[in-house]
Design a protein that fits this description.
Helix content is about 25%, strand content about 40%. By secondary structure, the chain is an alpha+beta fold. A hairpin with a 4-residue loop joins strand 5 (about 110-120) and strand 6 (about 125-135).
Length: about 140
């Protein structure tokens, strides 16, 4: 378990081992607490699809990364078991920001919502997730 009072530097170190999110996609942790996380990446050519928009998989990776942090800080080890994502509009800015909050965090199940926006406030996507927590 990651202590809910863990300093942000330790959370960044631990989740820095998520190499796909951090190294390949450039995701970084901005905030982390029990049931809440904010993560971001700066848009680069590696994130773009053939039409020049941010690829859905890159958006999902950022949302999933923030979910992993929000559902594991201060909780027993937790994994997602179901995710639904709606893509709302193309990003207009140069940074994507995912904010994850717990809707209900129970003993064995957790329900979370992740909102993804660009730095201009454009709503890009919303993900709903159900997570399983080991007792």
């Amino acid at each position: 378990m990651i202590d809910e009072n863990c300093p942000i530097e330790e959370v960044r170190e631990l989740f820095g081992h998520d190499r796909f999110a951090t190294e390949a996609c450039g995701c970084r942790v901005l905030e982390a607490s029990r049931g809440h996380a904010v993560c971001a990446f700066d848009v680069s050519p590696v994130h773009l699809n053939a039409q020049g928009n941010i690829m859905g998989g890159a958006i999902f990776t950022l949302a999933d990364f923030s979910l992993a942090i929000a559902c594991n800080v201060g909780e027993n080890p937790t994994v997602s078991v179901s995710n639904t994502i709606e893509f709302m509009s193309a990003a207009r800015g140069s940074t994507l920001i995912a904010t994850c909050d717990a809707n209900k965090s129970g003993r064995s199940l957790g329900f979370y919502t992740v909102d993804v926006r660009d730095e201009l406030g454009t709503p890009v996507a919303r993900m709903s997730a159900t997570c399983f927590r080991r007792a």
